[in-house]
Amino acid sequence: MPVQLGVNLSFCVKRWVTPELWAPLVRDRLKLERVQFSFDLVDPTWPELVLSQMAESLRAVPERHGITVHSAFIGLAHYTFNQLLHPVPGVRDHAEAWMRHAYRFAAAAGITRVGGPLGAIASAPDGYEAEALPEAEYAELISRMRRLAQAGAEAGLETLYVEPTPMRREWPWTIAQAQRMLADLAGTPIPWQLCPDWGHGTFAPLYGPDHAGMADWFAALAPDIGAIHIQQTDYLYDRHWDFTEPGRVDPAAAFALLARSGLGDRPVFLEAFYPFERADRSVLDAMARSVEILKAAASQETCAE
Ligand code: FE
Ligand code: MN
């Protein structure tokens, strides 16, 4: 089965910010046909008129270029605000409302899947980080996710995703937490699935050098994994490098692992972030080269089967 490769629009943030700008690049420069939209390109709480215009172009323009928008992910801007776990309850409520706006925008743009990380509790004054969220915080988070699944269904979505992050103040950062969360969300009107990220499960400072890998996540959670983020990284931070950078992720081995894990049919999105000051052309060159590297690795994997 060919690898279902796509690109998260993280590389377009602050640069190619409209479908008219990014769709031709994705198709002609990167030679890809599948993208994951980023809410770093549209804030779903912008004025209704602006949103309806942007949803309309997101619905029409990528299709004209032969591109499918598989899903929409939260990105970094909103993630920065602690979202559904901010210590001030009103901010949590706003984050939940923000997600509903995101669902409505996605549906209006013809996108049926939305995901991302959920939120972070605040840090302790002494910097101590517990191994898990307090139970009351977790229970409230589950209630919000249940309401969000209802809202997603009403908006016309099919699937919601949670992206596990390598952070003790978020949830889930362990396989057991992910399993518990999915069990606690059973029976929602549309499913919550997982979108693991190659730079998250491999973060050695949190998981230890012996347990920093994706294989355990895939083995334990494969049926609940709906999409995957791939990136180059050194396992020391969540780097989000492209594949022109040296790092520890071997693309051919990564695709082989996905195939072995029964995940060969899941979409894999390259998610690279760049410093804002890096020259636009150098970003394009690096992204195009990275996609070539990933495609070559993917065809190797296809031949090996
Ligand atoms: Fe990611
Ligand atoms: Mn990440």
Q: In words, what does this structure look like?
A:
This protein has one domain (4-304): Divalent-metal-dependent TIM barrel enzymes (TIM Barrel, Alpha-Beta Barrel), CATH 3.20.20. The protein contains nine helices and eight strands. It has helices at residues 19-29, 48-64, 89-108, 135-155, 175-184, 204-207, 215-221, 251-260, 280-304; strands at 4-8, 34-38, 68-73, 113-116, 159-162, 192-194, 228-230, 267-270. Strands 6-5-4-3-2-1-8-7 form an eight-stranded parallel sheet, covered by helices on one side. α8 links the parallel β7 and β8 (267-270). Fe (iii) ion binds at residues 163, 197, 229, 271.
Radius of gyration: 18 Å
The level of helicity is 40-55%
The CATH topology is: TIM Barrel
Name the shape in a single word.
Answer: globular
Catalogue the ligands.
Answer: fe (iii) ion, manganese (II) ion
Query: What is the mean pLDDT?
Result: 97
Side-by-side strand order of the widest sheet: 6-5-4-3-2-1-8-7
Q: Can you tell me the CATH superfamily? A: Divalent-metal-dependent TIM barrel enzymes
The helix/strand class is alpha/beta
Portion of residues in beta strands equals 5-15%
* Unreliable residue runs: none
Number of domains: 1
Query: Could you give the order of the helices and strands?
Result: EHEHEHEHEHEHHEHEH
Under CATH at level 1, the class stands as Alpha Beta
Distance between the termini: 9 Å
Q: What summary fits the major beta sheet?
A: 8 strands, parallel
User: How many individual helices?
Assistant: 9
- Based on the coordinates given, report the CATH architecture: Alpha-Beta Barrel
What's the total count of β strands? Answer: 8
